[in-house]
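Hey, I was hoping to borrow your eyes for a little while. For a while now I've been wondering how a particular protein folds. The fold is given in discrete form, as structure tokens running alongside the sequence. Could you read through the record and tell me how the tokens relate to the sequence? Take your time with it, there's no hurry, and the full record follows here:
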Amino acid sequence: MKSKYLISVADLSTDDILGLIDDAVKMKSKETAPVFEDKVLALLFEKPSLRTKVSFDLAMHQLGGHTIYLGEKEVGLGDREPVYDVAKVLSRYVDVIAARTYAHETVKEFARYSDIPVINALSDLEHPCQALSDLLTIHEKKGKLNGITLAYIGDGNNVANSLLLAASLVGMNIRIASPKGYAVNAEIEYEARVFAGVNGSQVIVTNDPAEAVEGAHVVYTDVWTSMGQESEARERIAVFAPYQVNRRLLSFASHDAIIMHDLPAHHGQEVAAGILYSDSSVVFDQAENRMHMQKAILAKLLE
């Protein structure tokens, strides 16, 4: 890998991503043994989590190490104690840190001051571990990444931003459909278009869900209201209603399209009731693959 941290998907090269997928496949099939006895991962979380917490904890355990969980009340990052001080102290105690923060600038600052590897376990701008795990799932289900078309429908949030970078780096076509005012980050879109130009793929950003889904091999959605946006929920439900992933919208996709969602899901909102329990859904494979991809990331950063 290009560096000893993973803050953005753009910190990785195409070869880095493909190498991580290959490593994750091997780890999932138990071809590799635990390699990091006595290594310690600190989970530094400003936001609560189910999948991120459990998957990182089990990933480190399966690699032979163990974890320490530090929630918002234990640390008070940037409030009770400066980011610089926390980064320097934890660098003396543990071997790697996964930070789940509200602001992307916080995890960037933390990585700048840390003397050990830092992983972005979610920020308001990106969710790199989720996107990399999603590529692992698509690779499993479709047998390849290059030339696959992924349609993301909904809020241009942190997951959408990371998927945009990840897909364009591995030669996948990606189409993102969001309402006006809820598009992906403009700088990330520009960066993804540069990657796509190098890797021979296509980036489309539109307001039309049907245009995005037309012939797509993967249809992906996420919650309309993310953590910290609860006060906007009523407004967002009204704005995003035409962007629900339902049978009508899926009829535009490839006949063998898979359906993805990073969970938790609001059934009946961003996705029609029952869709995520259909034969086309791979959401629980997605959830499991967080653990396997994070094993690969941890192993690479600690080698």
